[in-house]
Description:
Number of strands: 8
Strand content: 25-35%
Oligomer: single chain
Radius of gyration: 16 Å
Shape: globular
Helix content: 25-40%
CATH class: Alpha Beta
Order of helices and strands: EEHHHEEEHEHEEH
Amino acid sequence: MLPGSLQDEITLPDGTAVLVRPITPADAGALVALHARLSADTIYRRYFGARPHLSPADVDRFTRIEGRARFALVAARGTDLVAVTRYEGRPGETSAELAVVVDDALQRQGVGRLLLGRLFDVARVAGQEVLVADVMAGNAGMLGLLRRLALPGRRESDGDTVTITFDLTALELPPDRADRARGHLARAGVDVPPS
């Protein structure tokens, strides 16, 4: 079986099953619907400001994967997106910015941690060496989530924002996680590096 044909389903502690897969342009409506369900506080923590609606340009950018430089995974329950995590870099570079958002109804149930773990694996297999997360200093939930990932990183703060720089070169992936990451890349049409 080719890695691209593997399904990646996770079951949350409350029994909710979600499918993890790369985002696609067909997810545009579901992404807008997810954003509409987010509380003003969740939006503020994700975007560092008010953003009541996603612009068509944002929706287009957020639903497109660009090779190994920009990638996003979603957690889907049926046709609904319940979480999105992404990294965005520039072609040819090995450093990217990290972001995640989880539907308010499913926060603190592990979906963010599971999705981020899978995204880190994809980034490592795709050749990214560094992922950087900028988090508001008061966003204890996100800071705790990133700490629980237990990945090597450097933490700096200017008082308002905490910047965590993760060194992916130290991340050794077991074969099953590397295969799963290759599967996500293959499903997104990204050239899969050899194992």
